[in-house]
Amino acid sequence: EYPVRVEEAAAYSIPLLLITILMFWLQRSLVGRKGFAAVTGKGGERRPIRLGAWRWPMLFYALFVGSLSVLLPMLVLLQAAFAKAWGRGFSLDNLTLRNFEYVLFEQTQAQQAILNTFLYAGAAAFAAIGLALAIAYVVSRRLVPGTNVLAFLCMAPFVIPGIVLAIGFYAAYAPPPLALYGTALMMILAFTTRFLPIAYTSAAAGMRSINPEMEEAVRILGGGRLLAIRKVLAPLLKKSLAGAWILVFIPAARELSSAIFLVGPNTRVISVMLFDLSEEGNFEVLAALGAILLVVSVLIAGLGFRVIGRDFMLRRNQ
Q1: What letter does residue 39 receive in the DSSP assignment?
Q2: Which parts of the chain sit beneath pLDDT 50?
Q3: Are 179 and 261 contacting, i.e. CB atoms less than 8 angstroms apart?
Q4: In a domain, 31, yes or no
Q5: pTM as predicted
Q6: Domains of the chain: total
Q7: 143 and 241 share a domain?
Q8: CA distance 132 to 130
C-alpha cells in the first residue's frame, strides 16, 4: 500500500530479531566450545548409515519426494516454455521456439532483466565472499572485542524476511543525500546483505578448521598477517570460497522478496519480471524466461560439482 509504513514494518520485524538472538545464543551455548583444527581447510566427512532392509524403501521415498518437488515442476516448466499454448498439454504440433525467440531477441526488457540478474548476483556473490572472509577471520582469531556480536550480525539476515530487509534498505538509502533507490548499487547491496549468512557459514567453517599455528609460522619468519592470509589461508580455502560463491549466486539470481521492493525502471531482474508476467497471464513467455534462469543455475551448479567436488553444496558443521 502507499505510502510505505516503514515504522510498522520495522515493528513487525522485532519478534524475528528476538528469536534470532535467542537461537544464536542457544547455538553458541551448545556447540561454542566444540571444534577441531586441521591443515586442509576441509569441514569434515560423510558418515554412511547402514539402513539394512530399509534402504530400498528409503530410496523410493527419496525418489518420490524428489520427483514431486523438483523433477515434475521442472518438466512442466519446460513443457510450457516450448508450448504455443501451455493449457493444451504436450503434443508435437504444440511445440515452438517462439517464446525463447521473443524473450532473447525481441523483448528488450527481458534482455535487460537477464543481464541485470546475472550482473547483480555475481557482484553480490563476490562482495559477500570478501566480507564474509574478513569477518570470519576476525571472529575465529578473536582480533577485536565483541566477536560474538559480529557473528550474530552476519547471521541475522538469514531469518529476516526479504521484504522487511528491503524496507530497511529503502528507509536507510532511498532518501537524500544517498538517493540509491532503484539503482544497481542498491540491488547489489541488498543481495549481498540477504545472502551474507551463506557466505559467512562457509568461510567460518573453513576458517575454524585451519590451525592458527600455520599463520604464526609465517609471522615468525617475518611475514605479516596479510601475507599469512594470502599464502596460507586463501589457498586452503579456495574451494570452500568457490563453492560459497555459487551458493550465493544461485539464490541471488532468483531473489524476489527483496528485489520487488527495490527495483527501478532500469534495474528489473528476472524474478520481478516473472512476477509481472504472471499477473499479465503470459505463462508461455514466463516459462521461457524461467527456463533460462533454471538452465543457467543448473549449469553453474554442475560446474561447481565438476570443478570443486560434489560436497560443495553440503552445509558444513558449525
Answers
A1: S
A2: 36-41, 43, 315-318
A3: no
A4: no
A5: 0.82
A6: 2
A7: yes
A8: 6
